[in-house]
TrEMBL record:
<feature type="domain" description="Response regulatory">
    <location>
        <begin position="27"/>
        <end position="148"/>
    </location>
</feature>
<feature type="modified residue" description="4-aspartylphosphate">
    <location>
        <position position="81"/>
    </location>
</feature>
<dbReference type="InterPro" id="IPR052893">
    <property type="entry name" value="TCS_response_regulator"/>
</dbReference>
<protein>
    <recommendedName>
        <fullName>Response regulatory domain-containing protein</fullName>
    </recommendedName>
</protein>
<keyword id="KW-0597">Phosphoprotein</keyword>
<feature type="region of interest" description="Disordered">
    <location>
        <begin position="1"/>
        <end position="24"/>
    </location>
</feature>
<dbReference type="InterPro" id="IPR011006">
    <property type="entry name" value="CheY-like_superfamily"/>
</dbReference>
<dbReference type="Pfam" id="PF00072">
    <property type="entry name" value="Response_reg"/>
</dbReference>
<dbReference type="GO" id="GO:0000160">
    <property type="term" value="P:phosphorelay signal transduction system"/>
</dbReference>
<dbReference type="InterPro" id="IPR001789">
    <property type="entry name" value="Sig_transdc_resp-reg_receiver"/>
</dbReference>
Length: 174
């Protein structure tokens, strides 16, 4: 018997065993100016059973201020609404990805629109995913499950163009 068995092998043999990673909630920073959308996001995370700690900010400037605040711990992932007041999501994304300290934090863009120019622009600026906000709560739950599946699957790959845009229309696909 091999005593130096990797943790993932033990977990694979016993799927009911929790790995240490599963016990820790995902630290999410959500930049969204609409409080109803903030609540919908948090409720959808709960329904999707994604253990998380969500911090919300209402514009791109608050997002950057929070990320640069040394008293705050770094998030595991950032969700950024494209259209926000004060400083928009694309401008905030650009500043995050130009910052040597912040650029490695995965970023997911959120928008009600699926304009090809916005999608291409955020891909070029370094976002990890672009998610079109769905029209229903159940679709939002499915989308968040897909986002987290894609995020963790892509952790070793970096942004992949054919996996970059996620919407209600393609949530059931590979």
């Amino acid at each position: 018997m091999d005593i130096a068995k990797p943790l993932d092998m033990i977990s694979a043999e016993n799927p009911d065993a929790e790995s240490p990673k599963e016990k820790e909630p995902v630290k999410i920073l959500l930049a969204e100016d609409d409080t109803e959308d903030q609540e919908l996001f948090i409720d959808a995370l709960d329904e999707a059973q994604i253990a998380s700690e969500v911090t919300t900010v209402e514009n791109g400037q608050e997002l950057l201020d929070t990320l640069r605040d040394e008293s705050q711990s770094d998030p595991d992932i950032i969700f950024i609404d494209v259209n926000m007041p004060v400083k928009g999501g694309k401008k905030a994304l650009e500043e995050i990805k130009k910052d040597d300290y912040l650029r490695g934090i995965p970023t997911v863009m959120l928008s009600t629109w699926d304009h090809p120019a916005d999608i291409e622009d955020t891909f070029a600026k370094g976002a990890d995913l672009y998610v079109q906000k769905p029209n229903s709560f159940n679709a939002f739950v499915l989308l968040l499950k897909k986002v987290f599946l894609l995020h963790w699957a892509k952790a070793l790959l970096g942004p992949v163009r054919n996996l970059f845009f996620v919407s209600e229309k393609n949530v059931g696909k590979g």
